[in-house]
Amino acid sequence: MARPQPLLPxxxxxxxxxxxxxxxxxxxxxxxxxxxxxATLAAFEATLILPWCLKPVFGLVxxxxxxxxxxxxxxxxxxNLVLTATWTALAGSSNAATAQALxxxxxxxxxxxxxxxxxxxxxxxxxxxxxxxxxxxxxCWGARxxxxxxxxxxxxxxxxxxTSRSVFGLCACVAAxxxxxxxxTLCVGRATHLxxxxxxxxxxxxxxARVCAIYTAFxxxxxxxxxxFVFLFAATPSSGDxxxxxxxxxxxxxxxxxxxxxxxxxxxxxxxTGLFQRCWRFTPYRRFFAVVVVVSALLGATPVVLxxxxxxxxxxxxxxxxxxxxxxxxxxGSIALMPCLVLAAKLCPPGVEASLYATFVxxxxxAGLVSGYGGALLTRAYGVTRDDFTHLVPLVLTCTASSLVAxxxxxLLPRGSVKELA
Length: 422
What we know:
By secondary structure, this protein is an all-alpha fold. The protein contains 19 helices and no strands.
């Protein structure tokens, strides 16, 4: 019988903090302190997604090469120790090349930690009863969103009184605390009630066998077709970095205001996770995603109001519209991803849980990479810079219109729901 998983959401809560706390600080550091151009910023932040496209590699390593007889806990502890050193070094660095290299290392290490958590999540999800499809995913993703919620608000407030590099120092402290907590829970017997597959002595297949198992699993239409649709939906160009520069350089939003926008965004994501769990878990795929695509396109165009300053003519504050493209698309993207992740977790064969689940999620991350580079190219093509936002409106409209292409890919999705397919 499957054990309860009370601590798994705690680690996801910490992961949400680790992902979100440095986000605003890093963006402001690159844009203001290092004077990075908008298109260059968009390209670099897209490059930070690259390690997340290689999640299957981390999964294969942990599945194939256990440390001290365990496949998850040692990697979680080691990863957080590396993060501690990385953020500490970044807090003391003022060189642009060094800072970018350290940010890439931090992104890579955080990705590896995320894979370890996901593998524990998949192992737990496979033992869920049919009546609880997606419950553990919703709890963990909700905890992750809650952690991001706290960090988004806290990060904005901290940047009112601290420099970006001081916030990096706090990130080092958080990583050190997680390493200590993981060492005191994951490695002490089985009192934590976390999946203990890493501590068993069941023979594991070779790395080559794992790759074959992943390939065989992904040949199933129930996996590769939804994965292809999610990629096509998420790979459309984004104007998020250009809008961020507009908020900072043109509207002069303070770090506190930017942090509040992040707080609202992650709060909406947390609400969306709950709504999916209660209302949309068993909604047929095609109907669900058709609504998501159309609503995403409509709401994604709202930054035009802000950029054109129409809201000021209507007497509406800028902050009301500042959420824009990334806020709503992040919420809807999170909701849209949930049914695919539930299905992926249910279909993962034992022994390659981390690898296959990471492969599926990395498809979405690769889509984010393509989206970021596409947005950077369009930003440069439209001539949007850190001081010139003349053509920001057509940039936003181009990115928004491109998202409707996903409607043509709806036939890739199954006709039924997760309940009918699992």
